[in-house]
Amino acid sequence: MKISELAQATGTPADTIRYYEREGLLPEPARGGNNYRVYGAEHAERLAFIRQARGLDMSLDEIRVLLRWQAQPGADCGAVNALVDEHIQHIATRIRELRALERQLKALRAQCRQASDTAHCGILVGLSHTETGAPPAAPPHQHIGGAHGRH
Q1: Nearest CA to 120 among 128, 112, 129?
Q2: CA dihedral of residues 95, 100, 102, 104 (deg, nearest 10)
């Protein structure tokens, strides 16, 4: 099938498919006589695996590791369990960070109970002054580091 057919069959934009190829997550497809990429069922299956893992918020590096283990059907899956356990901890940390962020936003929102002119907006004043007592926003989340370099 052509890339447009694979995209339609899997609900994945063609640009994303090309990106996964460049990242080495999808094997390079064969080329037809017209030089078009020719994808097979194995590409659709691999793409479904990648999309499922991305849906679980796994990083591309984590997915690479999982794909390597998937290619070794006789290997012990203990390392797969460990990767998923680390990812669960990562998600738990993010949930705590998001709850703290929610509390900060609610406290900021409480500073402006009623609409007024922006010169007196409690939210804008609160964002402009560090003495509001609101802690700084948490840094952006990072995926687990343990997935890098595992085989």
Answers
A1: 112
A2: -160
Q: How confident is the model at residue 115 (pLDDT cuts 50, 70, 90)?
A: confident
| pLDDT tens, residue by residue, 42-75 | 999 999 999 999 999 999 999 999 999 999 999 9
31 beta partners: 37
What single string gives the DSSP state of each residue in 98-144? HHHHHHHHHHHHHT--S---GGG-HHHHHHH-GGG-PPPPPPPP---
Which residues lie below 8 Å from residue 132, measured CB to CB, with a gap of 6+?
A: 108, 111, 126
The CA-atom distances, in angstroms, between 13 and each of 41, 51, 79 are 17, 11, 31
Give the pair of three-digit tokens for residue 68.
């390597």
Low-confidence winner among 17-26, 45-54, 119-128 (lowest mean pLDDT): 119-128
Tokens of 146: 């343990």
